[in-house]
Write a structure and sequence with these properties.
four-stranded antiparallel sheet; alpha+beta; Alpha-Beta Plaits; about 25% strand; about 250 residues; 10 strands; 8 helices; 3 domains
């Protein structure tokens, strides 16, 4: 999930990785299969696949699992046919939520997503309802102890990054979709390790949340969505003070 503080969200997610390792492997496996299906199984010629392989390594996903997922995508092994879908809805407080799904059964996914919104005081919206408030971008999150701002700017801007933000304990690199692969490859070649590297929906405006109960409802909803089997990522345009969640 992503909102005002993707960095804080990423850290919370990593702290729970062991408990959710099966779900994480499933999400990455589907991504590998789709990348190999769409662009071939050779990471040298498929930069999106190479990026997902790096994500698999960072998650300590066994090489055997990676190889099987790629071969399912290239047709060397039998496998399910996955679709990538996007659902839109609202969380408490008027917060917009975009849910990315990778599934072999869109009826199941639609039912699960709708039910999760309803059970957590939210509601599903029609397709395109939130498109005006989000931009699809490439995003890299890099811990400040992995590189310097000057070194990162030299590498990322040279490769075509749109923006680099110094957030104190980490850097955020933003790219247009067309430049994502080039920036990913440049960071990899310079051995600059990313905490997160993915295509995200970045909000144009944020909804400030000052009520602790509403803040906790929003987090419960987005985390419940993130826990669903078919959900790849959850994006939301909230601005929540972390102190409200303590």
């Amino acid at each position: 999930m992503s909102g005002h503080s993707k960095w804080a969200t990423t850290k919370r997610h990593k702290a729970a990785v062991d408990a959710k390792r099966g779900k994480l492997f499933s999400v990455i496996s589907k991504e590998l299969t789709i990348c190999a299906r769409d662009g071939g199984g050779d990471p040298e010629f498929n930069t999106r696949l190479r990026t997902v392989i790096l994500k698999a390594k960072a998650a300590n996903m066994p090489n055997e699992n990676v190889d099987k997922a790629i071969k399912k995508g290239t047709g060397e092994l039998p496998g399910l046919v996955y679709e990538e879908l996007v659902y839109e809805g609202y969380a408490p407080g008027g917060v917009g939520v975009i849910v990315e799904v990778t599934t072999d059964n869109k009826n199941r996914s639609a039912s699960d997503v709708r039910s999760t919104f309803t059970k957590n005081h939210g509601n599903l919206a029609g397709a395109g309802a939130l498109a005006f408030n989000f931009q699809k971008k490439g995003q890299f999150l890099i811990s400040a102890d992995k590189t310097t701002e000057d070194a990162l700017m030299e590498v990322a801007l040279e490769a075509g990054a749109e923006d680099i933000r110094n957030e104190g304990d980490h850097f955020e690199v933003i790219t247009e979709l067309s430049e994502f692969d080039a920036v990913a490859k440049a960071l990899e070649e310079k051995a600059i390790e990313c905490e997160s590297s993915e295509i995200v929906y970045l909000p144009n405006t944020l909804v400030p949340i000052t009520d602790a109960d509403v803040a906790k409802q929003i987090i419960r909803l987005t985390e419940a969505l993130d826990d669903l089997e078919d959900v790849k990522a959850v994006h939301a345009n909230y601005d929540i003070d972390e102190k409200l969640l303590s």
